Amino acid sequence: MGYMWTGLLVLLVFSTVITHASKCCLPTQMEGSSGLSMGYQIQTKGYGTEALFQMAFDVKGKRKSMLGEGRTNGIPFKTHEIDDYAAGKKYTLTNGKCVVTILKTEIFCIQSDAKLLMSIFFGYGDMKIDVDMYLFSYNGANITMSVTKDSRVPVSQHILFPNVLLTLVTWE
Questions:
Q1: Non-local CB neighbours of 141 within 8 Å, separated by 6+ positions
Q2: Which is more confident, 165 or 40?
Q3: Where is the signal peptide (predicted)?
Q4: For residue 139, is it within any domain?
Q5: What is the CA radius of gyration of the chain?
Q6: Does residue 171 form part of some domain?
Q7: Cα–Cα dist 119/137, whole Å
Q8: How many domains does the chain have?
Q9: pLDDT band at 20 (very low <50, low <70, confident <90, very high)
Q10: Which uninterrupted H or E stretch holds 3?
Q11: 15, exposed or middle or buried, with CB in 10 Å at 0-12, 13-18, 19+?
């Protein structure tokens, strides 16, 4: 139960971030890796999850895929999640168990009312990447998200819900 809930929570948090008008969206197609660190509480029990995912987005085809593995409170899990926004369905396979649910969100963008916190860069000289960092709220969560300045590829997300802290770092 804990594994499935974790996998669903991760994808729900990641995919429900934007449904409003956007400040910027993802590139038409993108793939990369994402590291996840999350702490949350259910009733009085605390949970910690760390995972690594391969991710692919097809904005034009309205699909997203996450394939990865990790640990929740030291217990390993493997998961593959596919969001089919066009069909309105989410397919989640965790530790051999498949669950199909209704997907009620649109593909990922940064809200138009997001506040630009800062513009920074990673690297040095000709090897640097310019990044914009935004702050916005959605469905009770405070979200800090950074994207590359030129192509709007996600670099990091820090999502804080009551009783849930989620940090995602993405790289190509």
A1: 13, 17, 159, 160, 161
A2: 40
A3: 1-21
A4: yes
A5: 16
A6: no
A7: 19
A8: 1
A9: very low
A10: helix 2-15
A11: buried
**CB within 8 Å of 19: residues ≥ 6 apart:** 105, 106
Confidence of residue 74 (pLDDT cuts 50, 70, 90): very high
Q: Is 14 helix (H, G, I), strand (E, B) or coil?
A: helix
Phi, psi dihedrals of residue 6, rounded to the nearest 5°: -60, -50
Is residue 136 one of the residues assigned to a domain?
yes
Q: Where are the beta strands (DSSP E) in the chain?
A: 22-25, 29-42, 45-58, 63-72, 75-84, 89-94, 97-102, 109-111, 115-122, 129-138, 141-148, 154-161, 164-171
Tokens of 45: 């029990």
Angstrom distance (rounded) from CA 103 to CA 57: 16
**Which residues constitute the domain of residue 32?**
2-164
Tokens 């802290």 map to which residue?
165
Residue 105 DSSP symbol: -
Domain of residue 155, CATH code: 2.50.20
